[in-house]
Amino acid sequence: MIITIIGTGYVGLVTGVCLSEFGFDVTCIDNQPEKVALLQKNISPIYEPGLEQMMRSNADEGRLHFEGDVSACVPGSDVVFLAVGTPSADNGEDVDLRYVFAAIEDIAPHLKDGVVVIVKCTVVPGTSKRIHDRIGELRPDLDFSVVSNPEFLREGSAIQDFMRPDRVVLGIHDDRGRMAAEQLYRPLKLQDTPITVGSLAGAELSKYAANAFLAMKVSFINQIADLCEKVDGNIIEVSEIIGLDGRIGDKFLRAGPGFGGSCFPKDTRALAAFARKVGAPQDLVEATIEVNEDRKRRMAERVLDAIGDPTGKTVTILGVAFKSDTDDIRESPALPVLDMLIEKGVNVRAFDPKATEPAAKLYPDVVWAGDPYEAALGAHAVVIMTEWNVLRALELDRLRDAMAVPLMIDLRNIHKRKEPTRFGFSYISIGRDRAEPTELDTAAE
Ligand code: UDX
């Protein structure tokens, strides 16, 4: 099967590389020539564990190619994946489908009879049908199918999520689309991955519903963490206890500084806006968004409260990526903290193992250090914003000695409470500072 992937962003690139790993012949297309040039040298424009090695081995085997022009490969393709970006529109809410429909205009003249167009990007219900109709208008004589196949890849573990997914979701309108998609995912079917086959709109909605539900779990546990702080409770203990209930599940119950990234914030806003428009408002999703926005603001305030008068103070931010194992800082909870500190005239120093380059472009006045200890020099507080392993393994005596005042604000709860205090730190964390440690708490920490 010959496959073309339109768009080499996060989703397109991971999908293309993994399908070539299955043995298919894959060409990934991007309209940014500098990106294509990088990819042709097997350099990944994003940091994703394992991706570059897999790119290189499949390119060496001759199964993976990168091009800038759709006419080079779409005419010979049995399957064309649409994996272009679907960012927020200018109003900050609706999903912007302009790149999707621009890609349709580009590829339509080149599609061959019998082709299956697979919509991988996150689009509101009804979009795959619109794509089908538009191709039909542009190519009235073309025999083709459209499949909706949303992705559930997490940044940082995208290869694993592609190769061992919880499920593969297929929305179809005919048998040809179904058969082509089933053939593509046969390697996963053989390892007993559930493959659900349903309607186009059902598949589209399931992507939004899954992300919104997970985001809601995060906002929920963050609010329970607030409650823990009022009643001397311990959020680690509460998360563990409720997570042991199989109906709830133990995932996405880590309290922290709020969710960020390229998906949860954008997808929850798009779902809420879409649902309002079609007359089925999603109050829980609306609340999830509001709680998260408020949380990010309050985390910044927590840091300011902890340092007292900001005049002449230095604060070190450890981690700016929206989570570990990625260099992505989009909607990272670290950004409002940086903004507020800068606004108050605090000297900000920072370290991130992977995201320094994009972050330094946004914050040129911050001093970007090469390691956490250099970052902590003369600081009146260090703030842990991302759960990087290198921050879990901090040498606390070295960190303390670099600082002017040993204050640690751990917004990811990555340290055992007793550890930093043993080294002389004042330690502030999330949802557990006032509780006595219990057996369960110590085991969980
Ligand atoms: C998400 C979805 O998980 C994935 O299926 C989808 O296709 C793309 O969006 P990603 O954005 O990579 O993936 O990150 P994810 O691991 O889901 O985390 C999202 C946010 O929630 C991060 O900011 C993370 O720090 C936060 N989070 C997650 C918590 O605060 N607590 C948790 O327990 C889990």
Q: Major beta sheet, specifics?
A: 6 strands, parallel
CATH superfamily of the largest domain: NAD(P)-binding Rossmann-like Domain
CATH architecture of the largest domain: 3-Layer(aba) Sandwich
Q: What is the CATH topology descriptor of the largest domain?
A: Rossmann fold
Output the CATH class name of the largest domain: Alpha Beta
Q: Work out the count of structural domains.
A: 2
Helix content: 40-55%
Shape: globular
> What is the tally of helical segments?
19
Task: Give the spatial strand order of the biggest sheet.
Answer: 3-2-1-4-5-6
Distance separating the two termini:
49 Å
How do you describe this structure in short?
The chain has 445 residues and is of the alpha/beta class.
Reconstruct the topology from this structure.
Elements: E1 2-6, H1 10-21, E2 25-29, H2 33-40, H3 51-60, E3 64-67, E4 79-82, H4 98-107, E5 115-119, H5 127-138, E6 144-148, H6 158-163, E7 168-171, H7 175-184, H8 186-189, E8 195-198, H9 200-230, H10 235-243, H11 264-277, H12 283-307, E9 314-318, H13 334-343, E10 347-351, H14 356-362, E11 367-368, H15 372-375, E12 381-384, H16 389-392, H17 396-402, E13 407-410, H18 418-422, E14 426-428, H19 439-444
Parallel strand pairs: 1-2, 1-4, 2-3, 4-5, 5-6, 7-8, 9-10, 9-12, 10-11, 12-13, 13-14
Helix pairs in contact: 1-3, 4-5, 9-11, 9-12, 11-12, 12-13
